[in-house]
What does this fold into?
Amino acid sequence: MGKYEVSSDNYITIKAFMVNELHLSGNELIVYAVIYGFSQDGSSWFTGSRKYLAAWCQTSEKSVTHNLKKLLDAGLIEKRTHYERGCTINDYRAIRSARHRGEETSLGGKKVPSTGEESSPVRGEESSPHTIEVDNLVDTIDIVPQSDSGSGSIAAIIDYLNERVGTHYTYHNKSINGLINARLSEGFTIDDFKTVVDNKVAEWTGTEWAKFLRPKTLFAPSHFEEYLNQSPQPTNILDTVDWDKYRLTEIDPSTIN
It folds into this structure.
């Protein structure tokens, strides 16, 4: 079985409560930690793929599906389902623990007691719901490396698009941010976004397709990887001409009879 790869500059954070309170281990711990990182503010969702989770766990997508089911059954994550272009899309959000909902649940035969305690704020939540913070708290175990996700990456991508296309998209558009974060969570990088923009600018500028040089089209899940892997197009056909072949040589008048 071929193994998926995670970008070497990515990281996730495993917090001690995941081990001590939720009694998670192995791939279920990794899957929960990834989902938690993207949804720790309580309102955001992990919108990445099973392939991305499989890359972290170095296992198959089928095994990840099994891990997700166990976490769902234990009440440690929740799922929302929506439909795009005839496809079923599942997003996931971590629940800090079932005890914070006044419930008792179990995972792997171990009970998580109901204490009624409130979850404490997670440092860094206010800065960006998709930024996975690394801190120096005693109860934090850091695993290096997760993605370029975060407001800085969104700004870099939108700035590049605006510069290349001449648009004026802002950093505060939830729809655009959602598309960018979804692709980042799948393991794509800022450079991948720039390549997509460059490829389509070269191909569509000056054509009827130029109106589609927009985030909704460029960063859509149904298009992004295809655009990323297409062969680069010259900006202008004249750029492909070897003009040296047609350069006139200066003639010395004294050689003319």
Notes: The mean pLDDT is 74. Strands lie at 12-15, 77-84, 87-94, 105-107, 110-112, 140-143. The first strand starts at residue 12 and ends at 15.
